[in-house]
């Protein structure tokens, strides 16, 4: 079961969205906690809102006071209304909202039934209820409910989804746009890089590259970005796609903002000395490119070497899947620049490595617990670390599970409209 928690300043809008489902016979109210009853048992939005009014009047300064939570079991789970009521009550109790007024709606307008809970996160004194570690707590509650009621674990679905989403693009399979979208929309959320070149090195693992384009729009020169599929040889294998097709985060302005942010976080990143040491030792212990790459892959580091038409290495990038960071060689150390590797692999000039003994001691198991174990580190195993990053993965993929959860475009549209309204208010 996957839980999604939304917050807004629009209680009436959240109630109206759910009540409209009821009125259109695509939903029903399962029960209400601390909700003023009506003689008929039916409710209007205004009648539901009355039960929350005292809490909003008492509200001190919490802007996003409204909670809109959805609990989404697997479509194969057959959950009765009584069981939904028990699950909603248990979830709200464990999350600290059990004493709040809330309404539980069941939606039946798509191929999976699920429930929505509307409540407020301020108590009777108007104080905000703590949301510390909310995502982790919510995840733990969901796992407990799965065990208690014998539901299909959401982590199984996340594993399958990751396997489907994070894989190299295969232009022969068709629907290349969707393949690229599945990768591009999420890589920036997991990896830190400082240049478009480093981003392209990361994308190359998935048979994708980008290219800057320029054009005139309304008399002004504009820059944009194209995403291009590659074949197994790294050659173009299809027509390019505009970045706008993959969302704002895939565009050049968003990426450039990330460059600036990651420049600061990577300056003194704790993984840097470990990666530098691993690369240096691999350089000392191997004599050719293939062996060098193999040794680093076994430690969770991919190597991307860029060559010109004559075979000269003009760029080298290291992608560490342990720390989710991307590094140009020269950024790790001057002696790890592209020239060093070109001289070694193309001209047989052995590189001079300073402090080799000192570096080797840094990465010994006794002194550094961050290095992966000795067993092989398969290229895409880093994408299956659900237990370590389960909360983040469920956030990232919770809305990308069409086979598991169905699609509720009205729900997504409602969430988008709420965001737009907030932005308009904040801009006034």
UniProtKB/TrEMBL annotation:
Annotated ranges, domain MobA/VirD2-like nuclease: 39-151
Alphabetical list of InterPro entries matching this protein: Endonuclease_MobA/VirD2
Superkingdom of origin: Bacteria
Name the UniProt record assigns to this protein: Relaxase
UniProt source species: Flavobacterium frigidimaris
């Amino acid at each position: 079961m996957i839980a999604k928690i939304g917050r807004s300043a629009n209680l009436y809008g959240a109630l109206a969205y759910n009540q409209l489902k009821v009125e259109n016979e695509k939903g029903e109210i399962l029960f209400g906690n601390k909700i003023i009853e009506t003689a008929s048992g039916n409710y209007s939005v205004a009648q539901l809102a009355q039960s929350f009014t005292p809490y909003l009047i008492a509200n001190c300064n919490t802007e996003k006071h409204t909670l809109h939570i959805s609990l989404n079991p697997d479509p194969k789970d057959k959950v009765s209304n009584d069981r939904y009521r028990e699950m909603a009550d248990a979830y709200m109790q464990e999350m600290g909202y059990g004493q709040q007024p809330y309404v539980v709606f069941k939606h039946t307008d798509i191929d999976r039934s699920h429930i929505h809970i509307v409540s407020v996160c301020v108590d009777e004194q108007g104080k905000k209820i703590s949301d510390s570690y909310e995502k982790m707590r919510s995840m733990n509650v969901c796992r407990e409910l799965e065990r208690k009621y014998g539901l299909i674990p959401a982590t199984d679905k996340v594993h399958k989804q990751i396997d489907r989403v994070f894989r190299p693009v295969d232009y022969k399979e068709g629907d290349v746009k969707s393949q690229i979208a599945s990768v591009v929309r999420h890589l920036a959320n997991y990896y830190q890089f400082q240049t478009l070149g480093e981003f392209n090195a990361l994308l190359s693992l998935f048979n994708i590259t980008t290219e800057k384009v320029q054009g005139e729009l309304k008399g002004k020169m504009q820059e944009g970005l194209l995403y291009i599929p590659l074949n197994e040889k790294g050659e173009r294998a299809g027509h390019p796609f505009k970045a706008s097709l993959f969302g704002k985060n895939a565009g050049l302005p968003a990426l450039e903002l990330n460059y600036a942010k990651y420049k600061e976080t990577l300056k003194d990143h704790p993984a840097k000395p470990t990666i530098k040491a691993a690369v240096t030792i691999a350089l000392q212990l191997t004599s050719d490119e293939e062996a060098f790459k193999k040794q680093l892959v076994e430690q969770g580091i991919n190597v991307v070497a860029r060559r010109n038409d004559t075979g000269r290495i003009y760029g080298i990038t290291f992608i560490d899947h342990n720390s989710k960071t991307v590094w140009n060689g020269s950024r790790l150390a001057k002696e790890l620049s592209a020239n060093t590797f070109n001289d070694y692999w193309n001209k047989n000039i052995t590189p001079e490595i300073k402090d080799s003994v000192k570096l080797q001691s840094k990465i010994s198991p006794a002194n550094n617990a961050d290095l992966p174990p000795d067993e092989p580190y398969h290229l895409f195993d880093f994408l299956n670390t659900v237990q370590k990053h389960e909360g983040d993965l469920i956030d990232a993929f919770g809305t990308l599970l069409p086979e598991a959860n169905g699609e509720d475009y009205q729900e997504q549209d409602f969430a988008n409209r709420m965001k737009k309204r907030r932005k308009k208010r904040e801009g006034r």
